[in-house]
UniProtKB/TrEMBL annotation:
<dbReference type="InterPro" id="IPR014722">
    <property type="entry name" value="Rib_uL2_dom2"/>
</dbReference>
<dbReference type="Pfam" id="PF01132">
    <property type="entry name" value="EFP"/>
</dbReference>
<dbReference type="InterPro" id="IPR008991">
    <property type="entry name" value="Translation_prot_SH3-like_sf"/>
</dbReference>
<dbReference type="Pfam" id="PF08207">
    <property type="entry name" value="EFP_N"/>
</dbReference>
<dbReference type="Pfam" id="PF09285">
    <property type="entry name" value="Elong-fact-P_C"/>
</dbReference>
<protein>
    <submittedName>
        <fullName>Elongation factor P-like protein</fullName>
    </submittedName>
</protein>
<feature type="domain" description="Elongation factor P C-terminal">
    <location>
        <begin position="131"/>
        <end position="186"/>
    </location>
</feature>
<dbReference type="InterPro" id="IPR020599">
    <property type="entry name" value="Transl_elong_fac_P/YeiP"/>
</dbReference>
<comment type="similarity">
    <text>Belongs to the elongation factor P family.</text>
</comment>
<dbReference type="GO" id="GO:0003746">
    <property type="term" value="F:translation elongation factor activity"/>
</dbReference>
<dbReference type="InterPro" id="IPR013185">
    <property type="entry name" value="Transl_elong_KOW-like"/>
</dbReference>
<keyword id="KW-0251">Elongation factor</keyword>
<dbReference type="GO" id="GO:0005829">
    <property type="term" value="C:cytosol"/>
</dbReference>
<keyword id="KW-0648">Protein biosynthesis</keyword>
<dbReference type="InterPro" id="IPR012340">
    <property type="entry name" value="NA-bd_OB-fold"/>
</dbReference>
<dbReference type="InterPro" id="IPR015365">
    <property type="entry name" value="Elong-fact-P_C"/>
</dbReference>
<feature type="domain" description="Translation elongation factor P/YeiP central">
    <location>
        <begin position="68"/>
        <end position="123"/>
    </location>
</feature>
Length: 187
């Protein structure tokens, strides 16, 4: 893939590691005959480290041999999360600390989980942008509190505590943005 054709979100191989491009800065030449320089900020998918590099528009980087598979979570233990491919019934394991952020929004009923497979190994998962979760603990709502924009902490069935409007009661199912942890509404 030519440097000038790389866009944010592209999967490339840099220094023998798969990277996803997060940001691109184009530096135009200041003199005649100068070449345009593309500066990339990427994230190594395996180590989760940021990688910065620059290249000319005519330089090449290979695309990562990367596939996305629809999976369900079979079970998790202290070290790993075990996944089952929905089509081929292949099993994958991924280190629990690599997917800790995503796991706080996942229940047994969660669908739409995508495993990122690189060289026949799961290197991470992506989850839907919102999740419907049941409230397991919160303070009771007081009559008349729906007119204000105040919030209260609520604990969800996965153990995560978020802020929700005061009129929300224990036992209700709410929608939560999995990227920011914000309350979206009743489910």
């Amino acid at each position: 893939m030519l440097g000038k054709d790389i866009k944010p979100g592209a999967m490339v191989v840099y220094n023998d590691a798969p990277c996803v491009i997060e940001n691109i800065h184009v530096q135009s030449p200041s003199a005649r005959g100068g070449t345009t320089l593309y500066k990339f900020r990427a994230r190594n998918i395996v180590t989760k480290n940021k990688v910065d590099f620059a290249m000319k528009g005519t330089d090449m980087l290979p695309e990562a041999d990367f596939s996305r598979r629809d999976v369900t979570i079979m079970f998790s233990d202290l070290e790993s999360v075990h996944l089952l491919d929905s089509e081929s019934y292949e099993q994958y394991s991924v280190a629990r600390e690599d997917v800790a952020e995503e796991m706080q929004w996942i229940t047994e009923a969660t669908t739409g989980i995508i495993a990122m497979i690189y060289n026949d190994e799961c290197v991470g998962i992506t989850i839907p942008a919102s999740a419907a979760l049941k409230i397991t603990q919160c303070d009771p709502g007081v009559r008349g509190n729906s007119a204000t924009g105040r919030t209260k902490p609520v604990t969800l069935e996965t153990g995560v505590t978020i802020q929700a409007p005061e009129y929300i009661a224990e036992g209700e199912v709410i929608k939560v943005d999995t990227r920011t942890g914000e309350f979206l509404g009743r489910a």
